[in-house]
Amino acid sequence: MQLQLSFATLLAGVLFAFSTVQDAVARPTRRNSGLVTLPLKRVPRAEGVPPTVYLQQHINRAHKRLARMKGREVPSDHQLRQNIERRMLALEEDPLSKRFNRQGVKKNARSTNRIGLAGAAHNSRSLQLKQKKGGNAGGQAASTAATTGDNGTAGTGSEIEANGVPSGVEAANAPTASNSLGLNIEGQDVGYLATIQMGTPPQDFLILMDSGSADLWVGSESCTSTAGGGCGSHTFLGTASSSTFQDSGKQFAVTYGTGNVAGTIITDNIAVAGLNLTGHQFGVADSESDDFADNSVPFDGLMGLAQSTLSEQGVPTPPESLASAGLISDAITSFKISREADDLNDGEITFGGLDSTKFDSSTLTTFNNVNADGFWEGAMDSVTVDGTDTQLTGRTAILDTGTTLIVAPPADATAVHQLIQGSASDGQGGFTVPCTTNASVALSFGNTAFAIDPRDIAFQPVDPNDPTGDCISGISSGEIGAATEWLVGDVFLKNAYFSVDVGKNAISLAKLV
């Protein structure tokens, strides 16, 4: 009986398990009008969560994202919980009650694969949050506004370290591109966030950046948690903090895979990398599920960077508004995502163009967005492993910064792994590969092949004490979607410069330098 109780407690903790990201803002650098870049910063993964459980959380959330993207039935919470239970029961460590000891992590810490995708079925989003990692600050911290907990009470969530960044956050370097801000990179290369300013006087808000959704929101000053109480240690927006805040009274609601928010559409001034939008329309959440409201959640809101046809609020996205106002030349958003293992902290998000210093211009390829709903989806010409063609043709891939792994149809994932020496199926949708693999998996778009670093294929050791043994593969399989649809996340995107253009309805990729 004691074992059952421990298991139940443990399962509850793991199902809610992942984490904190916080701000360490680099101020924008501006070199010319029409191009804006934000620095990207890094945050770590949760400690003590077995890699196979960590993998399953990624897979679960990726499946939810893909289902919502394609308007198909979303897997039930019961099905997803059973997936986690099977992973846990397969573990042989003892005692069970100690297996997931995560001292210092709040009960509602988030799991991986964070951000939301617009749902064609119910116009909802699949929020997939990932565990963060701490680190060093690069550039100038910009948290000038006081962060409070429970809408006015001193926050008890993340502590600020001596370097001026929140505990558990590794800041991006100072941005090098025109008009730039950096992106935080969550541990194990799973998520991205940047700081923007809102209100009068301007306050800093730490925002998750997601290419798979289209709504911008932060918590309101009257925000309450569906679990009771206020909305935790976050920065809020309303009439008390902003003299330019105007509430339209029009309601909005967004449902994510692991949480939901509801509130009203407002207008207020915002600044993105130093570019000022006066009277921009976006949402403030009067109600947040504990997935957002808990003190352990380090971010203040979300910014969707797909096309506004996906917006629950029915308003333009910030890049679209920046372009309409003439502050950037085109509604373009470009990502340079850094890799945790490289320890470069050079991630940036650029608005209005592409930063040519980040990629080899001779490799730049642009192709049509084939998704009619507003996601960023392109035709994938081929998939190769060490130059050997898998014969997978006629595939499309949704390129999504809000998904950590690559999720392929089961037959496709099997075909890829059959060409990776030493790989094996785990029987639950995942695969393992040797941690020492040198296999080069490449996805081709626009007749250009983009190789994935073998370190990204060997996503994480199955046994943390055996880094040269078997690793979880960065490519998993999903039962959701047609046999030709892939969901391609950060495992691939950190190997390429990634840019999307709303005006041309086009996607661009280039090889990094």
TrEMBL record:
PROSITE patterns, per database record: ASP_PROTEASE, PEPTIDASE_A1
Region annotation (Disordered) ranges: 101-173
Signal peptide residue numbers: 1-26
Peptidase A1 domain segment(s): 192-510
Domain of life of the source: Eukaryota
Keyword Hydrolase found: yes
Compositional bias of kind Low complexity: 139-157
Key words of the record: Aspartyl protease, Hydrolase, Protease, Signal
Family per record: Belongs to the peptidase A1 family.
Protein name: Aspartic peptidase A1
Species in which this protein is naturally found: Lentinula lateritia
